Amino acid sequence: MNISTIVFLLLSLMAVGSALMMIISKNPVHSVLWLILVFFAISGHYILLNAQFLAVVNIIVYAGAIMVLFLFVVMLMNLNADTEPIKNYRMQLVGICTGGTLLLLLVLITNRMDVEQLVETNAGNAGLIKNLGMVLFKQYVLPFEISSVLFLSAMIGAVVIGRKEEPIDQNPNS
Amino acid sequence: MYLSTIDISLILEKLILIVVVVSASLVVAMYTTFAERKVAAVLQDRRGPNRAGPFGLLQPLADGLKLFFKEEIIPNLSSKFLFILGPALAMLTACMTSAVIPWGDHIDFFGRNVSLQIADVNIGILYVFGVVSLGVYGIMIGGWASNNKFSLMGGLRAASQIISYELAMGISLIALLMITGTLSLKEMVVQQQGGFWNIVYQPLGFLIFLICSFAECNRTPFDLPEAENELIGGYHTEYSSMKLGFYLFSEYINMFISSVVMSTLFFGGYDIPFFDESVLSPNVAAILGIAALMTKTLIFIFLFMWVRWTIPRFRYDQLMHLGWRILIPLALFNMLATGAGVLYFN
Amino acid sequence: MSTLTNKAKAVDRSPMSFMEKMYLPAIAKGMMITFSHIFKKKPTINYPEKQRPFSPVFRGLQILNRDEEGRENCTACGLCAVACPAEAITMEGAERLPGEEHLYREEKYAAKYEINMLRCIFCGLCEEACPKDAIYLSETFAPADYQRKQFVYNKQELLIPHPKENPEAYQKALGNRANKATSN
User: What residue numbers bound the domain in which C133 lies?
Assistant: First the structure.
């Protein structure tokens, strides 16, 4: 039981615990805050894997930007526990089905996993910025670019939705 | 990050360094509050605080003491834990940034080579960026937990402002990183010691970075989260006593740290201009380096205050217009131009 | 509409040029202005240590005067009370008894003389109304207090110090106002 194992266990406990708390907590703002803690735990795992770049990018992008937006929206919506509508039977069934499928998939994947290929902590340079850049821009350049196009289209979509309604033109010919 | 191989003396050395750096930045921030009042006074033909101690030098202590003795009020309907967490987070994130800043070169301490940087991580500047982006949580959580519409508005304004300006800041940083080719702050300083300062290569990038750091620190002209005449006090309307003090104080720490970061990134950090440090013994060079960094930092802090007492606050739409429609395109252009330049010259 | 004076200036609403849109030159200009104020003389004075001289026409707290031998001038004629627009002055007269000649200058004197400083507007009409040069407004103002009743000044508080027993305080209390009154 060396120190990195202890840290790993602590971080995992934190990640799983916070994730559970995120689902359990009634207040959506608290859920968002627990989710931020999950991201921190995951960043800790990245650091254990010697991938500081991934860790810090995870914090900047997810904890620093996306979750701020989540929090922003949740705070503005003013959701209270008593205003939450009671979900009907059908919705609950669908929820159980999708959740169960996800669980099944996870179990299957972990069963099939090759235990010999577990990642070693403190070793490997895959997460360092230089190696990551090389892999991303040489080996996986096409998927990378495609995903960036995806983001661009999402952005344009957001702009289109968010644009102010033009005042209706009286003359349709112009 | 090889946790198992760290020896005790290194831990001790780093602990001492952490204590020194954090307390030094606290003291500097403390006196920045004093300097703010003094600079404001001088710019407005007044005298400023001059009663507590000689030249009013004990004023920050008096202010702090006053805050401690103030009644502490926690709103009844707020979430108490989050209400306390808000200022704590603001303070924590403000202090955390100082970890990766190279305060000086190494010093020889009884034969031990002590680096004057808490952690020389290979992602230094990204770490600063990450911690700064977390700084908004303190404000948002505090604003929401206050259960007050003005506080909430302040928190939301802070969030949207910081996210908007973070983009331009990040892009202007990317242009800088293209030139330096490293993310480590220490290496950046070493590069600048050899050649020109980065401001020579990146004047536009520096300007964007400067404006964005004003916005990130919630300083005038971007102090919309706490705009008194619109939002009473913004996110800290409901705060009193030392919790309010923490919010105000973290703003000053942020100001100090961003001044240090700007000096490090663009103005050579602990590099003394027009002077070759290698002729001096390492200890003297280190101390002079710290002095040089502090001088640059103080100039930036003065700039922060100078701007605050000159330029009026932006309107909210002007703020967003500046962030999204001027700074981001400008930063993108700067990035493209820098990329082209790097390709051409290498 | 023609203008009466040539002071009116038309607002320039022409669109901003590129340099103006950059704002930076304007900001730099503004910052130079604030910077230049660092070197300007500061009008503030360090108050309790340094005090500004009062203006010669300053009207402060009332003082009941004595003559050179220390006798009270006031005869309780009531003209000041009548003149007072704020009705701040009340008094009671009394007859001078034999043996009190060193205390009061004339046969009648004010046994009680009160000015409510919360009502007083320091207009100086009492000073102008007084035929005996018995009351004048000094160059001090009423100090703050915690109770309203403390602002009703009685005769002892209003009287000028005795010129023979305490000549320094008398001269100090006399100030510039008294000189002006005697020169008239």
Answer: 62-183
Q: How close C177 gets to chain B, by Cα (Å)?
A: 33
Q: How far, CA to CA in Å, does B197 sit from each of B191, B213, B340? A: 8, 19, 20
Task: Quickly list DSSP for A90-156.
Answer: HHHHHHHHHHHHHHHHHHHHHHHS-GGGPPPTT--STTSHHHHHHIIIIITHHHHHHHHHHHHHHHH
- pLDDT at position A97, please? 92
Q: Which of C30, C42, C44 sits opposite B310 (nearest CB)?
A: C30
Give yes or no for a contact between B236 and B142, defined as CB atoms under 8 angstroms apart.
Answer: yes
For the entire predicted model, the pTM comes to 0.78
Chains in contact with A, where contact means 3 or more Cβ–Cβ distances below 8 Å, are: B
User: pLDDT tens digit string along A108-151?
Assistant: 888 877 665 555 555 566 667 777 888 888 888 899 899 999 99
Both tokens assigned to C54: 């009062």
Evaluate whether ipTM surpasses 0.85.
Answer: no
pLDDT at res. C183: 41
Which residues make Cβ contacts (< 8 Å) with residue B104, sequence separation at least 6?
B116, B270, B286, B287, B289, B290, B293
Tell me, yes or no, whether C11 lies in a domain.
no
Evaluate if residue A174 carries a pLDDT over 50.
no
Q: Give how far B156 is from chain A: nearest CA, Å.
A: 6
Q: Return the partners of chain B (3 or more C-beta pairs < 8 Å).
A: A, C
Cβ under 8 Å to A: B residues 50-89: 79, 82
Cβ–Cβ below 8 Å for C38 and B42: yes
CB B180 within 8 A of CB B187: yes
Nearest-angstrom CA–CA distance, A29 and A6: 31
Q: Domain total for chain C? A: 1
pLDDT at B22: 85
